[in-house]
Design brief:
By secondary structure, this protein is of the alpha+beta class. Helix content is 27%, strand content 20%. The N and C termini lie far apart (50 Å).
Amino acid sequence: MSARFVPRRPAWLVHIALAAALLGSGLTVAAQSRAEPPSEGTPPPKDWERQWNGVYGPQDAAGRNAPPGFTVLNPRANMDDLVIPLLTPWARARYEATELDVDDPGEVCRPTGLQAAHAQRGFTLVASPGRLTLIGDGVDTAAIRRIYFNRGHLKNPPLNYWGDSVGHWEGDTLVIDTIGFTDKTLLTLGGARHSTALHIVERWRFVANGEYLEKDWIVDDPQALKAPYHLTRYHKKLPADARMGENPCLDTPANRRAWVELRNDGIRARSEARAAAAKALTESKAKAPADRTTR
């Protein structure tokens, strides 16, 4: 099995650009987010668990369908066009260095984070005392997210794929504030990257007579983005007897071998490209003094 490998630029040049961007940005992982901090909010709506528990369908593949009277802001098909121009030099260098067959965590059954494909997928919501649990339909990539009530963020949250999510109510709208992300996930399917300073604020509410859950997102990262960006998604609440199907990606030894082989092919191809670029650079440096001597 052969992996797709299309390097955007020589690896040695990417590494130089990445280092220069990091030094020149003046930004650190601890940079403060420009998103609105969480507030104390209001008491939860009466019987909210009954309304919110259940299965929700996905946003359509192109990301354009919305209930009557509503419009999808920045649909999936437009996300790369929206986000990539917003990347800082640091993040742009990471984007240029990214090879999806190797760097996309979903390629090896790891969680894919809150952006990229996850924002589109269907899910199940399960309310329990002190938290709301989201179980995504991509359970093959551990799409289980916990949103905690009645507490602030952990003082030093461990960095992970889903972050540390805390929620509060503002009337009938659930506001979710998430920090504490690893930098291994992607902002877009095209490979736009973020840092551990990623900060996401979501506002969830029912619209269209309770038939749809509207998710409004503000995504910020002072190290990776020149400015925050905004999107909305709509998920239809399905009948009470709806069930999500299983979607295991490594359910057989043959599947696992195929996935591992694909990723190893990508790693090997990238290593060969880096070695070739380094050799060419060494040869060009060695040749330069010889050329001056002959003159």
